[in-house]
Specification:
The chain has helices spanning 6-32, 37-46, 80-83, 246-256, 271-276, 286-294, 298-303, 313-321; strands at 48-53, 56-66, 72-78, 87-93, 100-106, 109-117, 120-135, 143-148, 159-160, 172-177, 187-200, 203-208, 220-222, 227-237, 240-245, 306-307. The chain has 322 residues and is an alpha+beta fold. The protein has one domain (6-321): Thrombin, subunit H, CATH 2.40.10.120. The strands form 3 sheets. A 6-stranded antiparallel barrel has the order 1-2-3-8-7-6. 35% of the residues are buried.
Length: 322
Amino acid sequence: MVKYSLYGLIVITLLSSLALAQLDTVVVEETKATRTPEELGEHLQNISVTIRSNRSEGSGVVITKLNDKGEKINFVWTAGHVIAGLRHVRSVIDPKSGISRQVVYFDDAQVIKELNQDGRRVGELKMDAEVIRFSNSISGEDLALLRIRKTNFLQDSAIFYLEEDIPSIGSTLYHVGSLLGQMGANSMTRGIMSQVGRVLNGKTYDQTTVAAFPGSSGGGVYTTNGLYMGMLVRGAGETFNLVVPIRRMSSWAEKAGIGFAIHPDEDLPNDEYFAKMPIEDIGYTWDSIRAKIEAASPKVNKLFPFLIKDLDEKRSEDIESK
């Protein structure tokens, strides 16, 4: 039997705490650093992935947290509508009361990391990711958080723009996403903040001119310093695109119990916490969501004809044949 002294346990605890503190310190310091164009491009490439959901493909952004074992756990922010096809509902009957209730569950998404070397694509890595938290695109926030099942998969982490001041109109912004799906993985585009505080179906969006295509949805929009300031989700054209701003993401994350996925000073909860946490906002049934979809404003659908989401298999084949 292995015996540990009290001193040894104290040392291990202190070292683990120091590792967590160092990671948070690095994140805080990086928010103040100025990146060269090369450093900016490398960082945004490192944190950007493709999300595959059945036959659809969208974009995602990686954040990395340390658990109490010192392992790096990768989470991925993406748009709710990108993974909505993974959602299932089954009816179960309580053996004691005989009352039927609905249970919501999600299949795993696939996270794909593009690999390049010496100026050439050399392959890709694919990992399964479970859906930790989901909010639908109709009555919810159109946000989702995934957890990659493999530990220590990716090393880098997104850093969020958490200042009170909203980036001003005219500010330069960057977007990295899987434009047209995995074939356009990690494409980087540039634009400006063209307006703030647009309201659509009661939800607040910022507007940007960064170029986006189907497959961009769920991808990050960043300041010139590489700070994540929002998620691209809707558009009416290549350069008329709407972003879920970080202020809205942060508010929902706190209510949903996943503030750790944005704020560097919040520790990663243990597995028991995740096991007890509901995947989606309580109070909605699939039937009620479907009713809201059918009753959605025709005007909104006309002005913003697509959630900048997916590239299904057939469309991908059509593009490759051109």
